[in-house]
Amino acid sequence: MENQVFALDFNPWCGNGEAVVLFSGEHQTEACQERGPQVLDYYLMHLVLSGKGRFQTRGNTFELRAGQCFFIFPNELTSYAAMPDDPWHYRWVGFTGSRVQHILTSIGVTPHHPVIHLSHLQHAKYLCTQIQATLNRGAAYCDLEATGYLLLLFAACGPIRSMEGEDKLALVKRHIQKQVREAIHVLHERMPEKVSIAEIALKAGYNPSHFSKMFKSCTGMTPNTYLLQLRMEHAKLLLKKTLTIQEIASQVGYEDPLYFSRRFKAYFGFPPNVYRKMHEMADSYHLL
């Protein structure tokens, strides 16, 4: 194993902005050295230079080696550790900013997809080195210089940067479809609860408005419309059982049975108690 290496430099002029470097460092770890479980309030990127390690987040475990990069998102429970036989050596950058989430999403990095493989490790290593060297000098405007290198580093991480035309569009389309499928799964699971579409969008790494457009491009309807349809169709099935209107309302995500009845009538054209009577009368004739 290489000699123990640890270096860390902070941004002495840290402020607010679209993308702001907080600190940067380098570490040759010891065997089995572990960080976490932990929850951070900033973004943290690790570039693996050599050796191997393990990264865990959202119930997934990623085994990483040289040339790979993993991102830790704010408010996510994570842990990572060096392998016992070949502990990793990495550089890391901590950062924040109002546009960071959008930038990471644009290069295909989200809380569900936090690991990427770099095709040009040496270039990414150089950029990380320059970020730390800039912070170490601590000169006036070093924060702006570090941010410039950070944006170049993001560009170097972009998985579709070398693709052209249809290949790039196909990759983006597959990524969008996967995100929408995951959102639909969440909507089905959480239908009886108070569901925040904005929360689902942000957890997937998207602006809510952009996420709604993505969802509609795949399903033909917005997430809110899809959720309403899901609830109303399920309520219609429950009305065929011996449940009260209040029980049905609760099972499809409505605390107020009167509000549920109004939504049901607006959707189908008649209130739930009328539908139930229609079903009871027509059941023997198989009309409904």
Secondary-structure blueprint of this entry?
Blueprint: E1 5-10, E2 20-28, E3 34-39, E4 43-50, E5 52-57, E6 60-65, E7 68-72, E8 77-82, E9 89-96, H1 100-106, E10 115-117, H2 121-137, H3 142-157, H4 165-189, H5 197-203, H6 208-219, H7 223-238, H8 245-251, H9 257-268, H10 272-282
Antiparallel strand pairs: 1-2, 2-9, 3-8, 4-7, 4-9, 5-6, 5-8, 7-10
Helix pairs in contact: 2-3, 5-6, 8-9
Domain HTH araC/xylS-type: 181-278
Pfam families: AraC_binding, HTH_18
Protein name: HTH araC/xylS-type domain-containing protein
Question: Overview of this structure, please?
Answer:
The chain is α+β, with helices and mostly antiparallel strands and 288 residues long. The chain folds into three domains: 5-157, Regulatory protein AraC (Jelly Rolls), CATH 2.60.120.280; 165-225, Homeodomain-like (Arc Repressor Mutant, subunit A), CATH 1.10.10; 231-285, Arc Repressor Mutant, subunit A, CATH 1.10.10. 45% of the residues lie in helices and 22% in strands. It is built from ten helices and ten strands. Helix 2 (121-137) runs antiparallel to helix 3, helix 5 (197-203) packs across helix 6 and helix 8 (245-251) packs across helix 9. The longest helix is centred in the middle third of the chain and has 25 residues, at 165-189. It is elongated and about 80 Å long. Mean pLDDT is 88; it is low at 160-164.
